[in-house]
Amino acid sequence: HFLESNTKLMFLDISSNQFSWKPSLFEEQLRCLDRINMQGLKLWPNPFAEHFKEYQFLTVTTLDSLEALDGYEIDSNLRADLRKEAENLRKRGIDYTIFDIRVEEKARRNVLADDTGTAITGTTVPRLKEMTDKLSSMLDDPNELHQHVNSFSEMVQNTWSAHFHDRKQLMEVSRTAAEIESGAAPVRSMHSEEEHQEVGDFVVKMQQALDRY
Predict the structure, then answer these.
(1) In what order do the strands lie in the sheet with 40-42?
(2) pTM for this prediction
């Protein structure tokens, strides 16, 4: 833990290495960095992060001085929201040793997939509108409820397991054909008004589905 005494260290890049800490051990490593006024930290990619996407949450809530993680800025609103969630976890007596088991299970599943020749591909983060549409399908087509529920569960799992860099795809929308023909990218990020509307629609559909089923 030689870093503990390096109080002038402000930025640390340990990405693209072979660190394979268990989640509980990773938390211990962060505690060492918490004694430093760290402002920027790059961790991705590393083996420990492949099956432990929550490392982002743990890092931001542990290192109070951190201003950027993996090249992405941490604003005050994000930090406040994550701290509330961290406090809820602490009140429920949850610690990160439970993730050790989950990480091991994910690694075993990948090994089994390799042994059977099944290709392992990255997850695709759905757009929020796609998830809202899937909830609508549950409500409009109850005869295929099981299929719709499985599909929605897969969307949720893909979003949860994705790296936070990729989760921004949730708030993307397709451009019009005219925009694409003019040279614009096929997708764009939502405007704040669009985000508010889309999140509201999702919440309404989710509540309707929960009330019905």
Answers:
(1) 11-13, 40-42, 68-69, 72-73
(2) 0.50
